[in-house]
Amino acid sequence: MRDIPPLIAAALAEGAATLCHCWKITRTDGTVLGFTDHDNDLIFDGTTFHAASGFTAADAEVRLGLAAAGPEVAGALSSTAITEDDLKAGRYDGAEVELWLVDWRNAANPDARLLLSRAELGRVRRGEAHFEAELRTLAARLQQVRGRVFAHGCDAELGDARCRVDLADPAWRGDGAVLTLQGPLLRISGVSGFAAGFFTHGHFEVLSGAATGWRSAVLAHRLADGVAEITLAETPPGTLASGDAVRLIAGCDKSFATCREKFANVANFRGFPHMPGNDFVISYPAPGDADLDGGSMNT
Question: Which positions ≥6 away from 57 have C-beta within 8 Å?
Fold first, then answer.
């Protein structure tokens, strides 16, 4: 059972509209932001919770057990608070969110506020001028895969400690500059020496300009008139401009053939390419099958 501070309990008993919500967002880079649906700014625990931020709380459903359901939060995109470019750049991925119920008449008093939930930002949906974000409770971590998954494909990430491909090697990366951009389709100079498809399933990173640090997965890489064209998984922020320096990292589809032929890294392949498939598992002996006579199989 949750303990309700005396002042909050009194405010609830009054029935007067003296309560508001406050959101404290702590990004993974340490940046802390505060927002409230009250008319005026509130300050407590060293954080200023800004009013007129457009933040609103959506309906929340809470169940007993380990279900991962969580509330949602919606807000307006503001140049002084959360911007569309910040969301696209992933600066809020995994951010911790605290939701407080506060009696705005005495917000500085610890007994005048109640921590309703602590969660992390999950899926974010962006509109033209607003966003909606899912708040994942700690129970959501119980749905994440732990340990290894037995599958034909590799479960390592290209370049990590298990894969051991050195992505600092110029053979696996290309630096160039943006020539033109149209939505998620970009034409890049300086990387035409790489074969078409080399960067498919790879990564794109901006090295200079106002969009420095922005990254995206690469869905497709082709050559058109000797110039590299790439299609990104996300539309770049509006701050990306022609002439900005960018970097492309080689792609890997996690297949055994790609590991062997493209990266010559079979010794570190983290999949099970020779694992029997479903057809073999459900097969049964049939007349005339020399290898299915009840004896040991010769492989």
Answer: 21, 37, 71, 72, 73, 99
Q: Are strands 185-189 and 32-36 parallel, antiparallel or unpaired?
A: unpaired
User: Highest-confidence range of 68-72, 107-111, 119-123, by mean pLDDT?
Assistant: 107-111
Cα atoms in the Cβ-side hemisphere of radius 13 Å centred on 74: 11
Residue in the structure block whose two tokens are 């020539």 = 179
Q: What tens digit of pLDDT does each residue of 243-274 get? A: 999 999 999 999 999 999 999 999 999 999 98
Q: Return the residue matching tokens 């002084």.
A: 80
pTM of the model: 0.57
Whole-angstrom Cα Rg for the chain: 26
d(CA 39, CA 299): 75
Burial of 156 (0-12, 13-18, 19+ CB in 10 A): buried
The CATH fold of domain 6-143: Thrombin, subunit H (2.40.10)
Domain boundaries, given as residue ranges, for the chain? 6-143, 156-274
Residue matched to tokens 């074969």:
195
Query: Is CATH 2.40.30.20 what the domain over 156-274 is classified as, yes or no?
Result: yes
